[in-house]
Input
Amino acid sequence: MAELYRVTVPPPLRDRIAAILRNMAEPVIFANNLMQGEVTNAGTTLSRFLVNTTVGGAGMFEVASDWGMPRQSGDFGQTLHVWGLGEGPYLVLPLFGPSNVRDAVGLGVDTVMSPWKYIVAYGDTTTEDTFAITSTAASALTRREANIEGYDALREGSLDFYAQMRSVYRQYRAKQLGTQMGMQSPVFEDYDAENSTPVFH
Output
């Protein structure tokens, strides 16, 4: 599906879609920054959202980074880690890819916590659910498309792709969480880049 998305949607349009989705994630990052006690990061996230939503044309363009406001990391899986919850067993989620029990729960909470579905739906629960599923799936698709080459390279160079992906994901996630085993990964690094691709959670 990611390959089809890449060949059918021109790069400039993919960039704008990814940028908008990334900007839409900022309120959830802001909430998680606060729940983690990261007040300074929360302030940066809020400032980024205001700048990119206004000057950046509803988030289509990344202006805040150029103004000294780098994107912050924050999701509910991360918040659960800060609160002391272990990651649990490794999982591979359809469409979303590598995860674990804690991060899968976090993904669900982040989806519910996002304010956009409530704003768009105006109280219509069917529209809320449809928008939540669609926007979450769109984010997952853009993430997967941004890292096609990384996944393919890892698959081609691995005797046991599942075990290798599990190891890479755990180390990458540990880097996000600031734990000792953290590493930078060519499979996931584009998600954190200050460009128009969305951050991986």
